[in-house]
Structure prediction request, 525 residues.
Amino acid sequence: MNKIKPIYLVLISALLLVIGWPPLPTAFLLFIAFVPLLFVHEQLKNSNKKHLKFWLWSYLCIFLFNLGTTWWVWNASASGAIMMLVFNSLIISLPFLLFSFTNSLLPKSGHQSLVLYYLAMEYVHFNWSASWPWLTLGKGLAVFPAFIQWYEFTGEMGGTLFILLLNIMVFKVVQSQRWIQIWKPAILVLALYGISFFTALQYFELYKGNGIEVVISQPNIDPYKEKFSDGDQFIPPMEQMDIATEVAKPLITPLTALLLLPETAAVGYLDVHKMEESLVLNRLATMSDTHAMDILAGAETYEVYHQKNQPTLTARKDESSGIWWDSYNTAILLNNGQAQDFYHKSRLVPGVEKMPFPFLESLSINLGGASGSLGTSPSAKNFILKDSQIVIAPLICYESVFGDYATEFVRNGATLLAVITNDAWWGNTPGYKQHLLFGSIRCIETRREMVRSANTGISAKINHLGRITQQTKYNEKTAIKCYVRPRTELTFYVKYGNVIGKMSLFLAIVLLLSSVVKKFVKKGY
Prediction:
């Protein structure tokens, strides 16, 4: 590969990353996707401005990877897509720049520095204001849940570590042309598959029994034309709720414990302190009382503050009245004829539901609600159903992409994961399919079953092994009934968190500081 021009090597790497990404069943291509890019680094080792050149080639590769796998964001927001492509590509390409810098000063660090920097980048990207962890490498293995049962110990960043190590091992085989050494990465793959098999084996007996009955609604209301008041075919809130409930009613039985409705099932902005005055919620409350079941539904809500100074960082001010208010994307639990509890979405989509930095607030995008950053709940909050053994984690849309955040609900006692979402923003693209598959990873990491209600997209039930056992079709008005089992055990990943991410960040900082010191020593300071 040393004779192939860098542009072709970069294009090969980008192509392998794109066609190896979910929902395509070709994740094995990720095991070799970075090999051509590593040969670009080899070619540039002795050139002028080698670090800058390698970083620019790396940026191009990652940009094409972003474009090829998340182009569908454009359907929801053109400006958001551009910001994501440019900025996210910059963030993901930085480990390659740092690797080039460190490798030239500390050659013994080898490619291990790339692994540390990449893992550290992913960990930071999970936990800062501009989070967009959609392309965490470990998510690329979501199409093969049977292979990633070990995520219950490592989380999805264990998958990132595995993919990077395989790429480096294959690169060294190709570079040395000692093809007999290919047995080393092959053994690693087989070993992890064996671990997955024996890890899953201990859970097989838990398939016994039906569990509790859940009905999941998929009302299939167009978010651009019908769902929100700025749509030209806007459906009034009460009619929307009728659509969502009518499709589910034929499946409800005296044994139904939970009816799950999607994100923003209740539109029109409800005052969180006056929910009993909402006709839409009263309709749901009556239904919950009639059928003696719990209902979990998404809603647009707001909160008014009667004070002079800005009460929260996300509060907006009505200039005519001088009143401050917050807007929320909320999950509401109803039972016994009333709204019992609520939780506000706390992991928000950058550029759509929040601006990463306060000075960008004026650039925020209106996606079916008020512009400006949404308010959030202070922490992960579970819902306790009437049967106190069932504690639900109400993950709202984008929150299901964050493994660390899902574990907070489980550590707080969640025995079941519920995702409410509206994947129709992206149209019939890979976006909603990727989102569904990422739910399988959350189930493996936490060993919790998941019920998922999408306005449209795919509504589904996923078991604790990450297998999708029931699902709807896209663009279909329907409902499904499933049975789920509450679970209480805590996995290693839930107990101890993202150990790989934390350790990698610490070691990456140490390695970078060592490189900087070596740079100054080399210059004779």
